[in-house]
Design brief:
Layout (H helix, E strand, L loop, with lengths): L7 H7 L25 H9 L13 H13 L4 E5 L2 H12 L5 E5 L4 H13 L3 E5 L4 H7 L4 E7 L11 H10 L4 E4 L4 H4 L9 E5 L13 E5 L2 H14 L5 H11 L2 H20 L4 E5 L9 H7 L6 E6 L2 H11 L4 E2 L9 E3 L11 H6 L6 E5 L5 H12 L3
Parallel strand pairs: 2-3, 2-4, 4-5, 5-6, 10-11
Antiparallel strand pairs: 1-7, 6-7, 8-9, 9-12, 11-12
The structure holds pyridoxal-5'-phosphate.
Length: 393
């Protein structure tokens, strides 16, 4: 079926899907490492690209390809590449586009490991990185050098919930002939489609909203054009960050309900944000759906909704954060985000407990900051859970 002209929700269900020779209703798991050739000529044709036949699962596999095609259509891109994790996707893009003595400009509050790997491993190979607050485009402009090979953006950032104007940053980058890669994990294509705003590459941790059920780790890269696709596909095949067929099957199953999950958690998030904004124990809240968010207008313009991720500050700082963590019952205390279950995190006492003061400031983490990933439970229960925990602070 040609699904290109279907709406987003229909694409979630049908894009990339195929029925096998037995008429399977869903894409089966082709749990095989290798594929047999009909004869010697067939093998030669597959290797020469004259026959689209499968060769070896690191290079391609029907279950994995079905997911890749679905994700490419959802992001409105040329083609997709599925990988073993979000970090495999990020580092495959870095490895494909960065070279010795080259330079990358990145959002400062980018996902921690996406920054740390540049500061450690890529530095070893002579790659220089500038981390800037890309919510102000002039910071990106000032950081561009003659050897800049990639501009890497995350919007909104985690947990600072700052947005970058994607149209503006892509225009700037293209004036300098530099490709733009956007980590779209926080939004998923339901909320934001960077390729439509001018970006060249999108990366995802499928672990979060796209799979949505907190039961696998996975990643993806989607490109806008054929040449970038070929370069990055080759890098993935050489470096071996491919996805496994069973993982692909799980994501195909999970992503089908993306819109339903995002709608429900997004509607709840607005109610929860309003509840928090008016709560006497809350000092501040950052959620792009609130009029008080400094970039609310930009969010309305470049996102199709406001998502379900928010950060808030508790009066009483660190101590209050610990008390809240120890008294919530419905929300799960965990890292990660974008699952059907609500997740809560107090970085200062949990993930960033061992990080220096400077490190925490660089990551935008204050002692009072709590991050909430709204799930699809009844919103009344989520609010009641927070209310009873606040009462103990
Ligand atoms: C989780 C995450 C990643 C890394 O993905 P993994 O699947 O954990 O490897 C990258 N970027 C963002 C924004 C993330 O939230």
């Amino acid at each position: 079926m040609n699904t290109k002209d279907l709406g987003f929700n229909s694409k979630l269900i049908h894009a990339g899907d195929f029925h096998d020779a037995y008429g399977s209703a869903v894409v089966p798991i082709y749990q095989t490492s290798t594929f047999s050739f009909r004869d010697a000529q067939h093998g030669a044709d597959c290797f020469a690209g004259k026959d689209p036949g499968y060769i070896y699962t690191r290079i391609g596999n029907p279950t994995i390809n079905a997911l890749e095609d679905k994700l490419a259509e959802l992001e409105n891109g040329f083609r997709g590449i599925a990988l073993s994790s979000g970090m495999a996707a990020v580092t495959t893009v870095y490895s494909a586009l960065l070279e010795k003595d080259s330079h990358i400009v990145s959002t400062d509050a980018v996902y921690g490991p996406s920054r740390a790997v540049l500061d450690s491993h890529y530095k070893k190979f002579g790659v220089e990185a500038s981390f800037v607050d890309s919510s102000d485009i002039s910071n990106v402009e000032k950081a561009i050098r003659p050897n800049t090979k990639l501009i890497y953006i995350e919007t909104p950032t985690n947990p600072t919930i700052k947005l970058t104007d994607l149209r503006a940053v892509c225009q700037l980058a293209h004036k300098h002939n530099i490709p733009v890669c956007v980590d779209n994990t926080f939004c998923s294509p339901y909320l934001q489609r960077p390729l439509e705003l001018g970006a060249d590459i999108v990366v995802h941790s499928l672990t979060k909203f796209i799979n949505g059920h907190a039961d696998i780790v996975g990643g993806a890269i989607i490109t806008r054009d054929k040449d970038l696709y070929a370069t990055i596909r080759k890098t993935m095949t050489y470096m071996g960050g491919n996805m496994d067929p069973h993982q692909a099957y799980m994501v195909i199953r999970g992503v089908k309900t993306l819109s339903l999950r995002m709608q429900r958690s997004g509607e709840s998030a607005i109610k929860i944000a309003e509840f928090l904004e008016n709560h006497p124990k809350i000092e501040w809240i950052k959620f792009p759906g609130l009029k008080s968010h400094p970039q609310h207008e930009l969010a309305k313009e470049q996102m199709h909704g406001f998502g379900s991720m928010m950060s808030f500050g508790l009066k009483g700082g660190y101590e209050s954060g610990v008390k809240l963590m120890n008294n919530v019952h419905l929300a799960t205390l965990a890292v990660s985000l974008g699952g059907v279950e609500s997740l809560i995190q107090h970085p200062a006492s949990m993930t960033h407990a061992g990080v220096s003061k400077e490190g925490k400031i660089a990551a935008g983490i204050t002692d009072d900051l709590v991050r909430y990933s709204v799930g699809i439970e009844d919103v009344e229960d989520i609010i009641a859970d927070l209310e009873q925990a606040f009462a103990k602070i």
